[in-house]
Write a structure and sequence with these properties.
The protein has about 280 residues and is mostly helical. It contains eleven helices and three strands, in the order αααααβββαααααα. Strand 2 and strand 3 form a beta hairpin.
Length: about 280
């Protein structure tokens, strides 16, 4: 009886090992069917052909563009001021502008190329696609790299990089401040009128004065689009909460006044009835 049990155990183990071996062999030799996994490879695999070398950081250029849109553009719109094409902050002076405008974001992991409609699961793969397939849409003129202005525009503050938390370098702060002041002079000449003069002052406060190692002045001290939108949301929420409470207060006051009036009338009638005839 014991021998039969031992034989059955050995046979069962042999069967399991054989089954695992057959599965491994079949999976390693199985051909890839057409379109099987192709979509993922098409979407995620970085392209290696036609690489066009560009000495300008797309990521930092994007950060500079974000800073301009959030912390400068609201003031330009308020003054109805048009930047000169000679100003390095002008949208045309961004070599990646055309490509960035041809990005289609359909979802968090769903990006599409506006030129050829190819899909990607991450923005970085779309960036690589632009570099490899659509480099002819880059504006390679001199002075078109927005990343070169990142020092003046405090890009590290919006990128939340380790550089924004590193020890301040006085020489770098001085160099960035000079670049910042030159941008203020070229983009908002005081001689161009009151609007340019006001924007010149705003630009100095918003960007240039923070280029110091004292730590007293923070960048974007005048606020921007983000702060204004948050203020609007908070204000709207407070109104939605306080308005019903206000009407409830009015209702309770009116109800108390009405009950008090009725009580006074009742007391008055009782006083009249108690008088002798």
């Amino acid at each position: 009886m014991n021998k039969a049990i031992d034989f059955a155990s050995v046979f069962l183990l042999f069967t399991l090992f054989s089954h695992q071996f057959i599965l491994r062999v079949s999976s390693s030799n199985s051909p890839i069917l057409p379109n099987q996994g192709y979509a993922d490879e098409r979407i995620l695999k970085p392209e290696q052909e036609h690489v066009h070398e560009v000495h300008c950081s797309r990521e930092r250029s994007r950060a500079a563009r974000k800073v301009i849109e959030e912390y400068l553009t609201p003031f330009l719109e308020q003054e109805n001021y048009q930047l000169s094409s000679k100003c390095r902050l002008h949208p045309e002076n961004d070599m990646f502008r055309d490509q960035e405008e041809h990005k289609i974001c359909l979802g968090f992991h769903d990006w599409k190329c506006g030129y050829c409609k190819k899909s990607f699961r991450d923005e970085k793969f779309l960036d690589q696609h632009f570099d490899n397939r659509h480099s002819n849409h880059l504006n390679l003129s001199d002075g078109k790299c927005l990343a070169d202005l990142c020092g003046a525009l405090h890009c590290d503050a919006v990128m939340n990089t380790k550089f924004s938390r590193s020890k301040c370098n006085p020489a770098a702060a001085t160099r960035n401040k000079h670049l910042c002041e030159s941008l203020a002079e070229s983009c908002f000449p005081v001689s161009d009128g009151p609007s340019a003069s006001r924007l010149h002052e705003i630009f100095l406060h918003q960007f240039c004065e923070a280029h110091t190692c004292s730590g007293k002045q923070k960048p974007f001290s005048r606020g921007g689009k983000v702060q204004k939108s948050i203020f609007v949301v908070v204000s709207g929420a407070l109104i939605l909460v306080l308005l019903p409470l206000f009407y409830l207060f009015l209702y309770l006051v009116q109800r108390d006044m009405k009950s008090s009036t009725q009580e006074l009338r009742r007391i008055s009638k009782m006083g009249r009835k108690s008088k002798p005839s």
